[in-house]
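Subject: sequence -> structure tokens, single chain

Hey, anyone have a minute? Need the predicted structure for the following. Not urgent.
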Amino acid sequence: MFVDMPLAQPCEYLPERAEPADFDAFWKCTLAEVRTHDLAPEFTRAGGRIFGME
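Reply:
Had a minute. Here:
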């Protein structure tokens, strides 16, 4: 990391921020929706050959 201050200073930096009023509700709803999806992906080998890959 290239910064013009000691490493500890940017690691502790907390900028001012203004979260929207519905921030927590948005993420609660979004994460609940994601959890309804099947998380068992299936992968199929594509045809063709790419050098260096199997």
